Model the fold of this input.
Amino acid sequence: MSSELSTEIAAAAARLIVEEGLEYGPAKTRALRALGLPPRTKLPDNDELEDQVREYLSIFCADTQPAELAALREVAAVWMERLAEFRPHLTGAVWRGTATRLSNIHLQLYCDDSKSAEIALLNQGVDYDVGQARNSRGDTVDQLILDVPCRALNERVTLALTILDYNDQRGALKPDARGRTERGDLTALRHLMKDA
Done:
């Protein structure tokens, strides 16, 4: 695939991510359809897509995105404190700094017993839906979906809690090819919030 075509797909997907709050996979697929390309067209990698998201944000959302990101990080910090016993790590757009008010907040919980997080939420009187996600090995794991208030945005946002095995935590902070970590604990999040 030509680099121009890859960039065009990534730019179209970035617009969908920012304007509609899509996750990377669905945004790439919709971008192919929007551009009239065959479904088997090679897709840009996530690093190229993230670069396009950052460019789109800097051009079209520079006046609103920083405050929206700060609001979502504050919600994440509150829930990380509430769920501290499960060693929560923030991941996704809120961690990477590319989130807008439409982005989901993704927390990974590391549990000895996969049902313990559900029990904790029930004990706190928190309603949730159960979905599925994939862990780093590609296995299906439970994901608890919460609809939570975000006072700073004056609206509700989606909090996705992915339930991982306690032992999965060992590789949680390995850096990616660009030297960035894919997730961070509450201390790392507070550091990002302070530096913003």
